[in-house]
Amino acid sequence: MPMDINIHLSDDDLQFFVKGMHDVEAGVQAEDADQIIAAAQKLLAESQGMAVPPFIAERLGSVESLISMARDAGFNLPDADRHRVLAALAYLADPNDAIPDDVPVLGFLDDAIMIELCRQDLRFEIEAYDDFCAWRAEEAQARGLDPDKLMVQRADWTDARAAEAIALMHRRRRDSYASGAWKPTLFKVS
User: Fold this and answer.
1) What element of type H or E holds 86?
2) Does the structure show a pLDDT above 90 at 67?
């Protein structure tokens, strides 16, 4: 019989996680990014062999996106954003965090809560990265290339997005003139 369990985190509870993140974030600059990423990947690999509740499994699964974002040279995450992502990964990779990871069933509960908090705080970075990856895949397909081998940069993506916005603006202008609802009075449009 399934059962719903809701966890309500008070402001004090949230402060516990915020303090934990700040403690980790302060030490991240001294650590090697590749080591942090490798430790996070190791955590994910170890969690694959454990029986964890779906709530935890789903959140652990989203860590791969953070790892990819931190590693992706093409996306070239700005330093401040990369630092936040690495801090999240460093917290998750610590096997002796609030609830040690080797505690059966509950060991990853604090990690799942932290992942959820990180997903909320990093949602704009995650959305931008997902958009970049989708664009890169479309570009690769259009060029008949493997997306993993297509060397495009975030600057290419932003240029493409800007070109899309300008093309949309021009199309809307032409469509408004074509409908006859409005005619330009100040400028001649070619």
Assistant:
1) helix 79-93
2) yes
